[in-house]
């Protein structure tokens, strides 16, 4: 059986990641053998990458609020795993961070997921993760996919990215805080025990 440490070292040694390794960056993800919740998102932000702590930024603060968990539960409960579509900060784009590299998740998610047999819910954050995890089942827009979140339960729970860049989206879609967030908190509370 392949271990987490073996996979971690294989990711670091992969020639596709040589530039990141040369900068002193390690792949940033988190697995827990007893995890019941997986957070699937785009890629680490710059602060998360440089501090080597996933979701260590205002987006992470907001995500924990939406999930209804404390920092201690998020980082130390043993019930939450984190697999972005790319384990390295991709750089800055015109309106936010660059997208995750193509095919990265297809290569590294399956062996890591195999180490976490108790995942019951995958929180699918943002359009890139929704495309990868929901595929053709997703709606034509991110907004429609998130609004129709019940169609993906109990396995998947699609949400918008909690980035400050999306404050406007949240304000324009009050149903998200009224309906989606309470449903997410209820589901997370059941699985984090």
From TrEMBL:
Alphabetized CDD domains for the sequence: UDG_like
Record InterPro entries: HI_0220.2, Uracil-DNA_glycosylase-like, Uracil-DNA_glycosylase-like_sf
SMART domains with a match to the protein in the record: UDG (SM00986), UreE_C (SM00987)
Ranges for domain Uracil-DNA glycosylase-like: 28-185
Pfam families for the chain: UDG
PANTHER family, alphabetized: URACIL-DNA GLYCOSYLASE SUPERFAMILY PROTEIN
Protein name: Uracil-DNA glycosylase family protein
Taxonomy of the source species: Bacteria, Bacillati, Bacillota, Bacilli, Lactobacillales
């Amino acid at each position: 059986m392949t271990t987490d440490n073996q996979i971690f070292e294989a990711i670091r040694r992969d020639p596709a990641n040589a530039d990141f390794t040369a900068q002193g960056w390690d792949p940033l993800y988190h697995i827990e053998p007893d995890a019941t919740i997986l957070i699937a998102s785009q890629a680490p932000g710059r602060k998360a990458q440089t501090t080597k702590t996933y979701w260590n930024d205002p987006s992470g603060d907001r995500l924990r609020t939406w999930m209804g968990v404390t920092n201690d539960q998020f980082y130390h409960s043993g019930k939450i795993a984190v697999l972005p579509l790319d384990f390295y900060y991709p750089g800055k784009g015109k309106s936010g961070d660059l997208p995750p590299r193509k095919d990265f998740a297809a290569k590294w998610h399956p062996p890591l997921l195999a180490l976490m047999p108790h995942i019951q819910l995958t929180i699918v954050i943002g359009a890139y993760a929704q495309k990868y995890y929901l595929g053709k089942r997703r709606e034509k827009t991110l907004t429609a996919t998130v609004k129709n979140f019940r169609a993906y339960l109990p396995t998947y729970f699609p949400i918008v990215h909690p980035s400050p860049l999306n404050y406007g989206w949240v304000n324009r879609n009050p149903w998200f805080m009224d309906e989606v967030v309470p449903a997410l908190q209820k589901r997370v509370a059941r699985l984090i025990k």
